[in-house]
Amino acid sequence: MPLFLRALLLIIIVYEFLSSIGRWRGLSWSDPALRPFLAIAALALHPRNASWRQRVLALALAAFPGLLLQAFVAGVRRRSLDARAALQPGLYDDCTIVRIDIPMPEAFMPALYVTPRATPQAAVAVLHGSGCDKSYFTWRLTNAFLQKGIAVLLVDLDGHGESPRIQRYPQMLECATEAVRWLRAHHRRVGMLGVSLGGCVAARAAADGMALDALAIMEAPPVLRFDDRDRLSEARTLLQPYVLDLLRESSVLHLGRALYRLVRAQRAPSIRAAISTWDLIAACDLCGSLSRLDVPLFLAYGERDAIVKLEQSEEVWHAAPSGATMILVPDAGHLTLILHPETLQRMAAWMADHLTEKSIG
């Protein structure tokens, strides 16, 4: 057998064992029972009639094509593994998910209502970012809330997802107020989490009088100022261990498409709009809104965020009312903060402290 072909097969087996060690099911094509036979095959493939220099060179040349082949075979083998399926309506072991349409002054707002098995006293409405939708990389934060016994309402903002409305101002604020109104009819305590654009909308609606028990904002910009270099910098932040760990939840093909959409949303978001996102964020006046808040406030920003730069997050912090909590996450950017497990757990714990019966007492 040619040396390169031996090296290619050997490197694929190495990748398979690394995928097993990392528990990256989405990058794996074999079953555990097959692993001992793969180890034997690796020993048999080891070339014995070549120098160490030739072996190392062959493995180096096979590394990249082997990775592509590994990803392709694993993608086909695990094509049904998709973390987004966890947000499909239905009855699950730990929660119930219902697809609803919330009445609006004009038309309706599509939403997913996720409730833990035990009857929750508190709920959180989640407003996504620009170019996203209600199920856009929200399964981790949804699980973080469910683990605290908090129900979650995931909504499509105007102009996004399944919403029949277009992005306008001030009508966009109704997405926040109507979500809270709907939750108030079902829960004693209601909080809100706004991500990026959703954070700007949530802050403005709360400043204008929307009654909340707690408000969390992640990576919301005071204004938008970024270019292609910033987009490239953001794309590089995807190379983080906690992002690669998504392969435990999705196949490499599903994950690749989802990450492509995540990056593309920064350049060419799919939005039906009468006002641009840039102008909408300016109209929401994040810093001015924060200065008028009297609700418990949690702020989270990434130190590697190239869209909302560090000086902008500091501007937000200075505008926040006294008593607000703010965290800066060293290894997170604009695209990845919503995927950062420790940040999501800390945010959910903070929200639970302000929404549970213990906090009321």
Give a structural overview:
- With 361 residues, this protein is α/β, with parallel strands linked by helices.
- The protein folds into two domains: 3-78; 84-360, Alpha/Beta hydrolase fold, catalytic domain (Rossmann fold).
- 44% of the residues lie in helices and 15% in strands.
- A nine-stranded mixed beta sheet has the order 1-2-3-5-4-6-7-8-9, sandwiched between helices.
- Strand 1 (90-91) and strand 2 form a beta hairpin.
- The longest helix has 26 residues, at 52-77.
- It is elongated.
- 45% of the residues are buried.
Please state the structural category.
Answer: alpha/beta
Please give the domain count. 2
Query: Compute the gyration radius: what is it?
Result: 23 Å
Q: Could you give the distance between the termini?
A: 74 Å
Average residue pLDDT: 91
The CATH superfamily label of the largest domain reads Alpha/Beta hydrolase fold, catalytic domain
- CATH architecture of the largest domain, please? 3-Layer(aba) Sandwich
Number-wise, the strands total 9
CATH topology category name of the largest domain? Rossmann fold
The CATH class of the largest domain = Alpha Beta
The largest sheet is: 9 strands, mixed
The proportion of residues in beta strands is 5-15%
Shape: elongated
Cross-sheet strand order for the largest sheet = 1-2-3-5-4-6-7-8-9
What share of the residues lie within helices? Answer: 40-55%
What is the H/E order? HHHEEEEHEHEHEHHHHHEHEHH
Low-confidence stretches: none
Count of DSSP-assigned helices? 14
